[in-house]
């Protein structure tokens, strides 16, 4: 008989959301990250109350980033800096940024970018070939995000194994 105790999953308090976000594996096919708008699978920081999902890597992106082509640091905002009804356009790729996504922004210059590639890729030239090299800052961020995803997966797997072992031990007794 399996244990009826709830599995104690890691949670974080994140400034982007009012409720705690729990690390969980995705049971459905995929989800859309509420930070960057990209689809994800595997693990997410999730608020089951609000159906809010954030990639493990997005949950820990830096509060500020520097771009070589901009003289001020860009600050992470959890909501676009536009008045209601106005369209917010990324100053790097010139594509619209959905109003519910996070963005990096310089208030002094009214300059903003998408959260990931546009925020760090100093060499962006719009329609460039897919295999272009990333900047060193972008490479570091991608490596960090991958490592954080792997670490979160290992922690969750360890906790799940421990819970399964405990259930076996209790069922033998």
TrEMBL record:
InterPro entries: C1-like_sf, DC1. Residues 11-20 have a biased composition (Basic residues). Residues 1-20 are annotated as: Disordered. Keywords: Repeat. It holds the Pfam family C1_2. Residues 15-59, 70-118 form the DC1 domain. This is BnaA08g06040D protein. It comes from Brassica napus.
């Amino acid at each position: 008989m399996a244990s009826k105790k709830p599995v104690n999953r890691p949670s974080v308090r994140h400034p982007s959301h009012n409720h705690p976000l729990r690390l969980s594996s995705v049971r459905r096919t995929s989800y859309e990250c509420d930070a960057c708008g990209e689809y994800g699978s595997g693990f997410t920081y999730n608020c089951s109350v609000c159906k809010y999902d954030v990639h493990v890597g997005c949950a820990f992106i830096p509060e500020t980033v520097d771009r070589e082509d901009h003289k001020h640091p860009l600050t992470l905002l959890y909501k676009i800096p536009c008045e209601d009804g106005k369209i917010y356009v990324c100053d790097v790729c010139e594509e619209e940024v959905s109003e519910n996504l996070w963005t990096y922004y310089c208030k002094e210059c009214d300059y903003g970018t998408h959260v990931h590639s546009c925020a760090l890729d100093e060499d962006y030239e719009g329609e460039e070939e897919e295999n272009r090299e990333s900047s060193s800052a972008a490479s570091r961020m991608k490596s960090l995000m991958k490592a954080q995803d792997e670490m979160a997966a290992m922690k969750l797997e360890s906790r799940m194994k421990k819970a399964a072992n405990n259930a076996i031990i209790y069922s033998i007794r």
